[in-house]
Amino acid sequence: MIKKKDGTPRKIMFHLNCLEQGGAERVVTNLANRFAGEGYEVIVATEWYGENEFVLDDRVRRIHAGCTEHGGKHRRLQFLIRLRNLRRLLKKERPDILIPFARKALYRGLMAAAFTGIPVLISVRTDPVGHYDGLLDKILIPLLFRRAAGCVFQTQSAREFFAPRLQDHSRIILNPINSKYIGVPRPEKRTKTVVQSGRLVDFKNQPMLVRAFVKVHEKHPDYDLKIYGGDSFDGTKQILEELIRENHAQDYIHLMGASDSLEKELTDAALFAFTSDWEGMPNALMEAMALGLPIVATDCPCGGPRTIITNEQNGLLIPIKDEQALTDAMLRLIEDPQLAERLGTEAAGIADRAGEQAIFEQWRDYINELCQGSSCRGSAKRI
To answer: Exposed, middle or buried, 56 (CB in 10 Å: 0-12/13-18/19+)?
Structure first.
């Protein structure tokens, strides 16, 4: 453990918008809880409270850093208030390192920590294409990212999007897999159910899965499809419901809603189908692999699936938005159970690479590297 000269644990502050259930929020919660369990003083500074949030360890302090004054509809005023509040919090708490997650939090964190001597370890959690290439990004990234002490990416493709100087001072660290998905006994016999888990949201392209499975069901009418995930309220759920009605598939395609016990719900499925058009590092896919499920996954940017799946070795990779390739891959796994079991067995090896302890140690060691020296309070390392 990194310690101060007097032996007390160092203080880490994570910063993000909220802890409402999502990929970045899950990783922050996991890391915050692990660091707190190891004796670190941990703060999670958020901008607001969501309705369905991950739960923090009692030893982690959750602090509101968002708008406390009425900013009206003026976004610029709200931004300045948020920035001021975060800077005040940093000066009050004096964390040894600030770790913001996701785009807006990165910008706020780098601005708020300027000239405080507090190093900032940024973390890019999604495909940079379409998220870090707007006009404002092209202005802010050259100005702000050079102030970062380091950066954590999830894939090599995401890292290669940014300037060489940021790449040279960065690490690729996978998401930690919740331990409840690791070591689950393999089923003696698989059910005739295809599964997917993840929010019902446009970029996950669940409509393609529904259309493809209708074709699968024509050939294997004893199979059904269950899609687990909460509604993102972007219209995707309504699209899926209409597709199910149009194809008279109510008896064999089911929208299951969100579940807190996927490690039980998914374990004996015939296969897991991942259909996203883009993602960062998909937690749901990693969890399905840890359970030893046969996998078919789109090879989506920014390279999350191909980072953890070798085609034909521990899963099947298909092009994005290719409905026929998805249909064929699902049929192949259904009709060749020996192949499916071999791929599932190999997929479970992800637990060795991305277990909670392994990922925690990678983050801890990287923080150690950035904070090495007599104190983290000196000037942040510029890149």
So the answer is: middle
